[in-house]
Specification:
The chain is an alpha/beta fold. 52% of the residues lie in helices and 13% in strands. It is built from twelve helices and eight strands. Its cofactor is FAD.
Amino acid sequence: MSFTRKMVLSVAGNKVVSGFIKKYGMRLGAARFVAGETLKEAIEQVKLLNRDGLVVTLDHLGEFVFDEHEAMASTQACLDVLDAVKASGVNSNMSLKMTSLGLDLSKELCLKHMRLILDKAREHNNFVRIDMEDYAHIAITMEIFDELKREYGKHVGLVIQAYLFRTVDDMKHLEETYENCNLRLVKGAYLESPTVAFPNKVDVDQNYLKIIEMHLLSGHFSAVATHDDMVINHVKAFVKKHNIPNDRFEFQMLYGVRPETQRQLVKEGYAMRVYVPYGNDWYGYFTRRIAERPANAFFIIKNMFRK
């Protein structure tokens, strides 16, 4: 992990900094990356994206709840997303973090909430992506996903992070166990120990291409989450070489990041999904975006001095 990224993530934990950004961040530029604080605002943004041929993943932001009431509120927010997608007719699925559903309180509580959400997804013929979180939650996340995948099949998928040493083994397990295993492949955005994750960017990049190729060749659906032209071009060449049809994979990018490239990929005939976060609890998500691309920090600073 780069020094700049480490610094940003460390500074983000400062109470003074976090207090300032939480108070003024949406006005200063966080709205570029977060589609509003309400579901209604987010749905309107999804409609605009759909009009340009982009499909969407909605994410009600939140993680690390501390009591059952908060966990149920987050669960209800997810149910509301699925109902709003159905009612509005927009082309969107959803993603979630299981820590927001009570994972740190108990596995049983989290499973109870996940089943409520996945029952709704199945009722509406939609899909729920479980985000992979920090390393401390990976083993329990894999355990719960295995249980839910057996119950809900095509209606549930998972995120896999390239920067972890264990990733290839996890993928082999998933690919060999399930007939239809839809995985979102990312590099990873958490601050992890070098005992469990590649500390150098070049190694993460190499492993990322490795798992993309591995999953594309497996016959399962691949969601390639990247803003990197090198990766995009590599995928284009790889699927052409191996005669992998376009309906077996999609590109994914974050809301507010490289919108012109997103639309260009649609024009070229590729499926392009935009990850659209919304909600009041946007600080953690936003700071990870800053850490990934420090130029985003200058965007915020510039807005601080605009009249």
